[in-house]
Fold this protein.
Amino acid sequence: MYASGSAPGRNCWALTLGAHHVLTIGAWFSEAGQRDIFGSSGQFTAPHRALPSGTAEPADGGYVLRGTWDYCSGSAHATHFMCNAMVAGTTDRVTAVMPMDQVTVLDDWGDGATLGMNASGSNSVRVEEVFVASSSSAAKRGTRLQRYYRDVAMYHGHIASQYLTTAGELARVHFGLPDSLF
């Protein structure tokens, strides 16, 4: 993270968004699920679109996901995609993680398609009939997530506080400011 402090802001934005979702995996998923998600390489960076823009159809041993999620910052360089979806026929939500080679990153961001933040790589991601195993804990029901948000102090404020803390640290490194400043 420190090395990225000398990079342009657009790089730091994508790095911060993608890298901090490791915390989500560590908090919400079982140890077996974490092994499945991180794999043998341990490499993981993912956009996480929390708005449940798709559906998760219960299937034997997991869910079949479909839908399109917008504003997925860093999707062009991610190893995985993380999204929330509504379980078909219920009011439950599922958080699912899948490798990027199972999804389609749409060409709907940058090159003048948006006003500002062109370099954030906030493309939409389409998921078509992707199976996500529940046995690997790559999917969680929304009631657990709601309880998690309620019980963990970090989420009592706005998620922006995480980004501001990271941005402050990157700025400190970039400008050579002392450790005690932030």
